[in-house]
């Protein structure tokens, strides 16, 4: 090395050793960084990592005049930054003499007398504890070789261990090994001379680092294997497909060897079976019932809309043995259960109309305020979107399949501007811009998702368990589509249940589901029968009738008192609403992380619930009027024009018009709804000396004619909007 004069090649201590034959130059990276008389004046790809060759040679000449205070040789390029301290040394010599080099800001260096030290409280316990990196003992002493965590009281480390950990983890993953604190921990370690490289972790950079995790166990372990081709033979979609143990995953069987008719059936190995048998939770016969009960029927179309007014049956729920006894059908069903009667038949105590209207108005006000905040947050996320475009070719007759294909294409990036082209729409109007197609695409896509088999329930929907969708990773794609839709101008979802929203924001372990979250009518009636049992004998009789269901749910427990029913009901709800959909929920959460949407939801849960859990506000004359900013020329009376415009909107809202408020919005912006992120640019109105109104969708600008009479203004509006939209629809 031209700076320290050593031949050692030890990247952990001295940084990468680089040789440049064309310049006849070899240098350690850390020697270069810490040298006192050189600065990085070039770009990253110039010279040596931004240090120009001419500057390096000047620094070598400068250092040749300085003697190292440690080894007494020439070439000491590093000096202590403490005032009045004139010590100079080589980088390797400084390490040996326990100097501190700060790899941040101005890359300062401190000699052994002036180096920074950690503050120790007098009452701190002495002795020794385990270094949480190497697990060897580390003494609690104020030494150079020992560092204390700034965020954890009893966390001590060896300096060498921390340096190796920092080099491996990089700036994104280096944090306290005890409390996981990152900012405070990194700041202190940089001050104490730990070098944290600005790169990804080493395990993330290694190719195929997780390849072993992708290998599935493929071996038949039953006592008598029936396969003639051997225990390792595996043929998918046949009776010789290997099924792994649902609990440990480290044992397997051919479907035929365990008399299983379908891959969807669950199977437990002998070891896991014996563990459950010893725990006394359920018998061998009940476990067989569990396997039979968890069959799932694959649906050919995942987004087929359910029949109207028919409750959706969750695909993962065991229905074959629910409520088979007439006892459960008629016994102890309380008339107050909202799940047995339609909304019109429920008996509720209503507050006074004045109080009801006041509460509704207050909630309406808060929802509007929260939706404005969401709009601003989404605009912050939209900063990531680049001008580079990605085109989605969508088949209007099969929105879901073509959308899925588009989102999964290799060139698709959520940070690109999205253009939508409906490939089977012929003779499209010239006014039907790409923005119009995009708005329409996201609107139809959200409607498809809402009515798909990925969700269950009537209004406030929860995730369902669709085995085929899990297999095809559709829950991830659904979450990704919703996130992309919100940032790129799609409508608010508005169909999530509060339970689903809380699971996404707070984590499923912190959520308590309610009876209304159960979409499957059979399961709901079973829970109701248990919840409203009025005696211990009737409760035990109910449990006996649905014993196999409780076994399948893992909720079978001894009931010794009537009060035990509440705990049992809670267990069933947690299983059916949360535990049953653990895989879909986690996959859906990962999809929502796209563009940082989930992170913002977790930071502002109350705000985002306004667009996820409540239907979008119905358009009103007041809403549409407030959406537009009115501009007018100097010779046009702004007041008269605004009055005509407001009067027309009120006529449209009251039904005294051939067009709707959605038609007006579509005419101007290309969208029949207000996007969650709002319009860009914001809609404006201009009153001009023109004959008929003009909707400029590129600028979201509505140009209105100046008229003396309101009826004349209205007639022109009706004629233009109706004819324009009719042509587009045709």
TrEMBL record:
<dbReference type="InterPro" id="IPR001965">
    <property type="entry name" value="Znf_PHD"/>
</dbReference>
<feature type="domain" description="PHD-type">
    <location>
        <begin position="1"/>
        <end position="115"/>
    </location>
</feature>
<dbReference type="InterPro" id="IPR011011">
    <property type="entry name" value="Znf_FYVE_PHD"/>
</dbReference>
<keyword id="KW-0479">Metal-binding</keyword>
<dbReference type="Pfam" id="PF00632">
    <property type="entry name" value="HECT"/>
</dbReference>
<feature type="region of interest" description="Disordered">
    <location>
        <begin position="288"/>
        <end position="319"/>
    </location>
</feature>
<dbReference type="InterPro" id="IPR035983">
    <property type="entry name" value="Hect_E3_ubiquitin_ligase"/>
</dbReference>
<dbReference type="Pfam" id="PF26054">
    <property type="entry name" value="PHD_G2E3"/>
</dbReference>
<dbReference type="InterPro" id="IPR051188">
    <property type="entry name" value="PHD-type_Zinc_Finger"/>
</dbReference>
<dbReference type="Pfam" id="PF13771">
    <property type="entry name" value="zf-HC5HC2H"/>
</dbReference>
<dbReference type="InterPro" id="IPR034732">
    <property type="entry name" value="EPHD"/>
</dbReference>
<keyword id="KW-0436">Ligase</keyword>
<keyword id="KW-0808">Transferase</keyword>
<dbReference type="InterPro" id="IPR059102">
    <property type="entry name" value="PHD_PHF7/G2E3-like"/>
</dbReference>
<dbReference type="GO" id="GO:0005634">
    <property type="term" value="C:nucleus"/>
</dbReference>
<dbReference type="InterPro" id="IPR000569">
    <property type="entry name" value="HECT_dom"/>
</dbReference>
<keyword id="KW-0833">Ubl conjugation pathway</keyword>
<keyword id="KW-0539">Nucleus</keyword>
<keyword id="KW-0863">Zinc-finger</keyword>
<dbReference type="InterPro" id="IPR042013">
    <property type="entry name" value="PHF7/G2E3_ePHD"/>
</dbReference>
<comment type="pathway">
    <text>Protein modification; protein ubiquitination.</text>
</comment>
<protein>
    <submittedName>
        <fullName>G2E3 ligase</fullName>
    </submittedName>
</protein>
<dbReference type="GO" id="GO:0016874">
    <property type="term" value="F:ligase activity"/>
</dbReference>
<dbReference type="GO" id="GO:0008270">
    <property type="term" value="F:zinc ion binding"/>
</dbReference>
<dbReference type="InterPro" id="IPR013083">
    <property type="entry name" value="Znf_RING/FYVE/PHD"/>
</dbReference>
<dbReference type="GO" id="GO:0004842">
    <property type="term" value="F:ubiquitin-protein transferase activity"/>
</dbReference>
<keyword id="KW-0862">Zinc</keyword>
């Amino acid at each position: 090395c031209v700076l320290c004069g050593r031949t050692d090649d030890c990247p952990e201590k001295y940084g990468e050793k680089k040789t440049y034959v064309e310049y006849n130059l070899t240098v350690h990276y850390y020697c270069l960084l810490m040298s006192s008389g050189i600065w990085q004046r070039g770009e990253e790809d110039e010279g040596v990592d931004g240090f120009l060759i001419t500057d390096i040679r000047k620094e070598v000449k400068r250092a040749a005049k300085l003697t190292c205070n440690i080894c007494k040789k020439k070439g000491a390029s590093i000096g202590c930054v403490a005032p009045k301290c004139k010590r100079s040394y080589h980088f390797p010599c400084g390490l040996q003499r326990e100097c501190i080099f700060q790899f941040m800001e101005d890359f300062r260096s401190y000699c052994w007398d002036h180096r920074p030290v950690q503050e120790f409280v007098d009452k701190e316990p002495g002795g020794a504890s385990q270094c949480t990196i190497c697990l060897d003992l580390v003494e609690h002493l104020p030494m150079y070789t020992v560092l204390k965590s700034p965020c954890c009281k009893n966390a001590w480390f060896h300096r060498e261990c921390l340096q190796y950990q920092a080099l491996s983890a990089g700036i994104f993953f280096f944090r306290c090994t005890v409390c996981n604190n990152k900012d405070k921990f990194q700041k202190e370690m940089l001050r104490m001379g730990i070098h944290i490289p600005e790169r990804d972790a080493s395990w993330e950079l290694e190719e195929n680092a997780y390849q072993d995790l992708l290998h599935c166990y493929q071996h038949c372990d039953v006592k008598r294997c029936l396969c003639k081709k051997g225990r390792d033979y595996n043929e998918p979609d046949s009776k010789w497909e290997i099924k792994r143990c649902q609990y440990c995953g480290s044992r397997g069987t051919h479907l035929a060897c365990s008399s299983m008719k379908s891959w969807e059936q669950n199977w437990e190995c002998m070891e896991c079976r014996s563990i459950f048998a010893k725990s006394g939770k359920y018998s061998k016969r009940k476990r067989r019932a569990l396997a039979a009960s968890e069959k799932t029927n694959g649906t050919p179309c995942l987004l087929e809309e359910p029949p109207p007014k028919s409750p959706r049956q969750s695909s993962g729920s065991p229905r074959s043995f629910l409520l088979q006894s007439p006892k459960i059908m008629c016994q102890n069903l309380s008339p107050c259960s909202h799940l047995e009667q339609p909304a019109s038949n429920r008996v509720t105590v209503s507050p006074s109309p004045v109080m009801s209207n006041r509460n509704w108005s207050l909630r309406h006000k808060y929802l509007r305020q929260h939706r404005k905040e969401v709009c601003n947050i989404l605009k912050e996320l939209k900063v990531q979107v680049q001008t580079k475009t990605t085109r989605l070719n969508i088949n209007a007759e099969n929105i879901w399949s073509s959308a899925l294909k588009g989102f999964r294409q290799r060139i698709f990036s959520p940070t690109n501007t999205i253009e939508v082209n409906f490939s089977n729409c012929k003779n499209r109007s010239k006014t039907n811009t790409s923005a119009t197609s995009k708005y329409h695409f996201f609107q139809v896509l959200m409607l498809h998702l809402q009515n798909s088999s990925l969700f269950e329930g009537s209004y406030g929907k929860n995730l369902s368990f669709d085995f085929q969708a899990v297999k095809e990773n559709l829950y991830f794609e659904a979450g990704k589509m919703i996130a992309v839709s919100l940032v790129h101008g799609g409508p608010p979802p508005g169909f999530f249940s509060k339970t689903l929203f809380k699971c996404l924001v707070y984590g499923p372990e912190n959520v308590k589901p309610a009876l209304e979250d159960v979409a499957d009518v059979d399961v709901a009636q079973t829970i109701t029968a248990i919840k409203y049992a009025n005696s211990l004998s009737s409760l035990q009789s109910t449990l006996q009738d649905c014993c196999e269901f409780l076994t399948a749910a893992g909720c079978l427990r001894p009931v010794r008192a009537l009060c035990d029913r509440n705990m049992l009901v809670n267990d069933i709800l947690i299983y059916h609403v949360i535990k049953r959909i653990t895989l879909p929920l986690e996959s859906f959460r990962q999809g929502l992380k796209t563009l940082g949407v989930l992170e913002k939801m977790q930071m502002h849960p109350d705000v985002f619930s306004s667009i996820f859990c409540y239907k979008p506000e119905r358009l009103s004359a007041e809403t549409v009027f407030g959406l537009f900013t009115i501009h007018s020329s100097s010779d046009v009376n702004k007041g008269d024009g605004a009055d005509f415009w407001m009067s027309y909107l009120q006529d449209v809202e009251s039904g005294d018009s051939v067009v709707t408020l959605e038609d007006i919005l579509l005419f101007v912006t290309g969208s029949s709804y207000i996007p969650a992120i709002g319009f860009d640019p914001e809609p404006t109105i201009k009153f001009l000396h023109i004959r008929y109104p003009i909707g400029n969708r590129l600028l979201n600008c509505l140009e209105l004619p100046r008229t003396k009479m309101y009826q004349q203004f209205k007639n022109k509006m009706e004629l233009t909007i109706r004819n324009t939209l009719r042509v587009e629809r045709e």
